[in-house]
Amino acid sequence: MFRPEEMVKIEVITLNRHKDSLLTYLHENGVVEIRELDVKIAQRDSPNEYHRKAASYSITISRLVDFLKAYRKSQGGGIKEFIFPKERGRKKYRYEGVEKLIKDVEGFLAVVEPEIKAVEGKITATQTEIERIKNNITVLELLSALNLDV
């Protein structure tokens, strides 16, 4: 009747007001063994330095990707491109541990981030100049209606 199955230890953190309904639901389904966790144990398992670095790099890369997406060329293709999109070339990456992965990401960001920030600065400067010129044109149009000799 009972066969050995692979089991996994999980920890659930919930609000105190939902604790009873959650425990009842899990118990009625009969699929889990529930144990309370001591607060000291939960605090001991706080994220280490790699989690913080990974989160920071993830946010940085997401910001860079969002900036690049805003200026990506539109792909003209039509129905055929929509139904049969071209596959992008993929790079193979051999995972050799968290330390090496973080060093690779740091190296990638050291090369790419300054280039993207330089382009971002040029675009911002150009947009500011365009706005300044538009404001000058508006002022000149208003002054041209007055027919003043300069």
Question: What's the order of the H and E elements?
Answer: HHHHH
Our estimate of the beta-strand percent is under 5%
- Summed up, the helix count is 5
Helical content stands at 55-70%
Major sheet attributes: none
Domain unit count:
2
Overall form: elongated
Structural class: mainly alpha
Which regions have little confidence, pLDDT < 50, spanning 5+ residues? none
Radius of gyration: 29 Å
Number of strands: 0
Mean pLDDT: 81
**Separation of termini?**
101 Å
Give structural notes:
The chain has 150 residues and is an all-alpha fold. It has 2 domains: 8-46; 48-68 and 96-150. 61% of the residues lie in helices and 0% in strands. The chain has 5 helices and no strands. It has helices spanning 19-29, 39-44, 49-70, 79-83, 98-144. Helix 3 packs parallel to helix 5 (98-144). It is elongated. The mean pLDDT is 81.
